[in-house]
Amino acid sequence: MEDFATLPDLASRALGGGVVHANDEFFAAADHLVLPAAPVFTPRSFDHKGQVYDGWETRRRREPGFDVAIVRLGAPGVIRGVDIDTAFFTGNYPPHAAIDALTVEGYPAPSDLVEAEWVPLVPKSPLQGDSRNLFPVDDQRRFTHVRLTIIPDGGVARLRVHGTAVPDPRLLPEVFDVAALAHGARITECSNMFYGHPENMLMPGLAQHMGDGWETSRRRDDANDWVTVALAAPAEISLVDLDTTHFKGNSPGSASVRGTADGTEWFDILPRTPLRPDTPHRFPVRPGRAATHVRLDIFPDGGMARLRLHGRPVAGFLDEQFRRHT
Known about the structure:
The chain is 4% helix and 42% strand. It is mainly beta and 326 residues long. It has two domains: 3-165, Sandwich (Jelly Rolls); 171-313, Galactose-binding domain-like (Jelly Rolls), CATH 2.60.120.260. Strands 12, 13, 15, 16, 17, 18, 19 and 21 form an eight-stranded antiparallel beta sheet that branches. A hairpin with a 5-residue loop joins strand 16 and strand 17. The mean pLDDT is 96.
């Protein structure tokens, strides 16, 4: 698998992504493209239009042309690669596809997007059926929308747009969650993610169930589990939110949060503190210095639904990052 596939899916519905235009959805709605869950399939499940597919499927073309779906990214940013997943589409997948991207401000109408000048990211390329089709992207610009073109027609289960979020600083308050994936934070290291990926902790909204968080296997030694997060911007943290919602018999007994600005010297943000099961914990803190990365230690193991770290970013950092990619 390409390295980019480990990066966040900027188009995911979980981040607010959505399909804003599709020229044809006869057999299955294009909204399926951005669903965060893996596609599923039940053989011989028919409705009034035929076999039910968990994906986008257009009718068979009887004239030259192609079909398109336009996706608004939930987190605008730099795209490192795309995954055109044709899972369960075997005799009805598109033989070729292309990806283009666009940067626009505000909230354009679908008609404006259709007529816009798009930037090619992936040229017309062959696809395999019932497969993940991975295409790296080498473009450092920030984009807000992508367009999937399938040639000439057929079905695609999911479109994953992997990359790094680059927020518009004009749209952020002075103090915000600098650990949010939608703002550009990312997981850099983790001791264990047996039951749930730590990236879940950085997602927006409340966890929906126990599987919508980070959970480790049971430790049988004297060590503890941990995860490190690269913050969206260097910031002095003022509020730590450790949410164990849904974790009842498997929440950590305690946790601590440390920060670093140089990757070598770590300082306390929140000293080791007892936690309760199935509880949002909020702790005001004053570490007195800014961090670029934080490390969450849980003792000894268990699950965490969400991690929020509210702070004021260092002046000018987000503006410079935004200018560099626009």
